[in-house]
Amino acid sequence: MAEASVDLPAEILLSKRVQEMVLDNKEPPAPYKCRDDADSEDDDPISMSPIPLIDLGCLLLSTSEVPAQEIVEVLEKINAALSSWGCFQAIGHGISNLLLDKVRQISREFFAQPMEEKKKYAKTVVDFEGYGADPVPEEGQSLDWSDRLFLNVQPEDQRNYKFWPMNPESFRDVLLEYTDEMKRVTELISRAMAKSLNLHENCFLKQFGERSQLQARFNYYSPCKRPDLVLGLKPHSDGSGYTIIMQDEVGLQVLKDDKWYKIPKNPHALLVLMADQMEIMTNGIFKSPVHRVLSNSERDRISVAVFYTPEVGKEIGPEDGLVNERTPKLFKMVKDYADTHFGYYQRGMRALHTAQA
Ligand code: OGA
Ligand code: NI
C-alpha cells in the first residue's frame, strides 16, 4: 500500500536521523528539498583544481633552516589565496597521515554503529552539543541531508564528556590527539596569516584570546537517491574565526564570483576556510566564503570540521595596522559574533552586515 505522503513538521523530522530515512529507502520529505539547480560533479584531478594548494612545510622549521625567500613566497601564497578564495588546501601542516586516517576511521566507525549506540550521545533539538541535527531552523528553511556529532574540545573545562563516544574505543584518545594538533596548527596559521599582512605575528592569537575555542563537528552525509533535490549542508559562511576541515570524499563546494568550485579529494590536505570573524579582523581583506555540501546518490561522505573561535565575551575587530585613510574601518568591534551569526543562519541569512562600521 502506498504510504500517504504527509509532510511532517521540522521538529518531528529532526527527531529522526537522515541515516534512518536512508535505511527506510524514503524519498526526501519536503523540508529537505531545497534545490533544482543540479550541477554535475565531475572529478577533476587535484592538479586541475583552481582551489589553491599550499605547502606549509617551511613554516614548521626554524628560520635559520629555511631560505628567507621561501618563507616570503609561502606567505604571499597564503595572502593571495585568502584575499581571493577565502580558503586553501594545506599540506605540510605537520599532522601525520596516520593520525588523519585515524580521525577518518573513528568518524566512520562512530556513524556505522547501530542507532541505539549513537543515540546515547543524542542532543535535544535545541542543543548544540551531541549527536543529531542542527537545532530546528526558522519556518520555511530547508533541512540538511546529514547527521552530525558536535563537541566542544577546547578550552578543556568546556568539554562535556557525556557526549564523547565510548565506542569506537579509541574515539576519545584520537580526538584528544587531533585537538592538540589543531591547537598547534591554528597557532601556526594564525601567525602566518598575520605575517602575510605585515602585522605583528601574534596579533590574531591575541584577538582569539587565551581561552579561544575549538569545536569539532563530525559530519555524516548519507547518500540520497535524489541528490538533485537536497543538500548535505545548505549554503552558509561560518561564524567562527576560521575553520579547518578534513574530508574523505568530494562534496564540499565554495562560491567564488557566483560559481561553485569543488574542494578536491586529497587525503593529506586540510582545508583552511576563513569565517566571518577573520573577515572582520582583517578589515575585509580575507574573505569568508559561502560554501555548501552536495549529496551523492551512491556514496556517503565523512568530514570533520574544527571551528576556531575567539574566546567567549571577548571583543574583536579590525586590526589597527589594516586601517588607514585609504582603507577605512569596514567593521566595528563585536563580541560573541558566533551567536549573532547563528540567529541569522537559522533564517538562511548571513550576519556580516551586523558588524559593519
Ligand atoms: C560546516 C561545513 C563542510 C563539510 O560544518 O560548517 O561547512 O565538508 N562543513 O562538511
Ligand atoms: Ni561551514
Supply the key terms.
binds nickel (II) ion; eight-stranded mixed beta sheet; 357 residues; disordered N terminus; 9 helices; Jelly Rolls; alpha+beta; four-stranded antiparallel beta sheet
Describe the structure.
α3 (68-84) crosses α6 (171-196). The protein contains nine helices and 14 strands. The chain has a single domain, classed as Jelly Rolls (Sandwich). It has helices at residues 10-13, 18-23, 68-84, 97-112, 115-119, 171-196, 203-208, 276-281, 337-345, and strands at residues 53-55, 87-91, 130-132, 147-154, 213-221, 231-236, 242-247, 252-256, 259-262, 270-274, 291-294, 301-309, 315-316, 334-335. A hairpin with a 2-residue loop joins β8 and β9. Nickel (II) ion binds at residues 236, 238, 291. N-oxalylglycine (OGA) is lined by residues 217, 219, 233, 238, 245, 247, 252, 291, 293, 303, 305. One of its GO terms (molecular function) is metal ion binding. InterPro entries: DIOX_N (IPR026992), IPNS-like_FE2OG_OXY (IPR044861), IPNS-like_sf (IPR027443), Oxoglu/Fe-dep_dioxygenase_dom (IPR005123), Plant_2OG-oxidoreductases (IPR050295).
What characterizes the major β-sheet?
8 strands, mixed
Helix and strand string, N-terminal first?
HHEHEHHEEHHEEEEEEHEEEEH
Classify the fold: give the CATH topology. Jelly Rolls
CATH architecture designation: Sandwich
Helix segment count? 9
Text of the CATH class: Mainly Beta
> Runs with pLDDT <50, length 5+?
1-5
Family: Belongs to the iron/ascorbate-dependent oxidoreductase family.
Protein name: Protein SRG1 isoform X1
InterPro entries: DIOX_N, IPNS-like_FE2OG_OXY, IPNS-like_sf, Oxoglu/Fe-dep_dioxygenase_dom, Plant_2OG-oxidoreductases
Keywords: Iron, Metal-binding, Oxidoreductase
